[in-house]
Amino acid sequence: MHATVPPLAVLPDAPLRRSRADEVYEQLKQDVSDFKLVPGDRFTETEISERLGVSRTPVRQALFRLQHEGFVEVLFRSGWRVLPFDFNQFDELYDLRMVLETTAVHRLCENALKVNQAMLDELTAIWLVSPEQRSSDMEQVSRWDEAFHCALVAAAGNAEMARVHSDVTDRIRVIRRLDFTKQPRIDATYDEHSKILKAIQRKRGDQAAMLLRAHIATSQVEVRKITLHQVHVARRQGASKS
Q1: What residues contact 40, with CB distance under 8 A and at least 6 apart?
Q2: What would the pLDDT profile of 113-134 be if each residue is shown by its tens digit?
Q3: How many Cβ atoms are within 10 Å of 10's Cβ, its own excluded?
Q4: Rounded to whole angstroms, what are the CA distances from 84 to 72, 90, 116?
Q5: Which domains can be identified in the chain, with CATH numbers?
Q6: pLDDT digits (tens, 9 = 90+) for 179-228
């Protein structure tokens, strides 16, 4: 049994009207996050347009956008390919994430007037629960983990920090999801998140930042251990659920 809580609304709302290219872009990024497209996969614009039921023009626009962001590359006369993971770039993104999040928790402890307390209350409802109330659903915990870190930054009240952090989160999502394939990592996440929240509640900024730094560093080390084999295992597991 685990607690039922509402999803965290920590990211800006999507525009009410999106172009077909935007929809294709979001779907392809989701395919990467869900391991339906993994590093090394090759495909053509025609295959994507037929699968999604759209013309090739929005598909091409979406793919060029994904190419600019480093997810895919165009192959001469042979379609497109999902790029291998760039672990040096992931390292840099984790370093940036650590700066943003530790700065945010200091602000949460030092500037109460700007703090979004409702967001912190939602985090408490998810993470400060008894062991029997914890979720064992790895996919759900992965989503909650991402929302936890986004909420810490958003709750601090600096919109530009939240925007940059959202972009970093978007770019490391696929690799972070692979960190939640084993139960010990879920247990550790609950324990570490609860300690961070308790330090914030007590306005102990240095302690909260130290705990958060160690928490992110552990995840960063795990990312460096990820292999292509794990990615394909995750794809098979995802396919078995669908």
Answers
A1: 81, 82, 84, 228
A2: 788 999 999 999 999 999 999 9
A3: 23
A4: 9, 12, 38
A5: 20-82 (1.10.10.10), 87-225 (1.20.120.530)
A6: 776 778 888 999 999 999 999 999 999 999 999 999 999 888 888 877 66
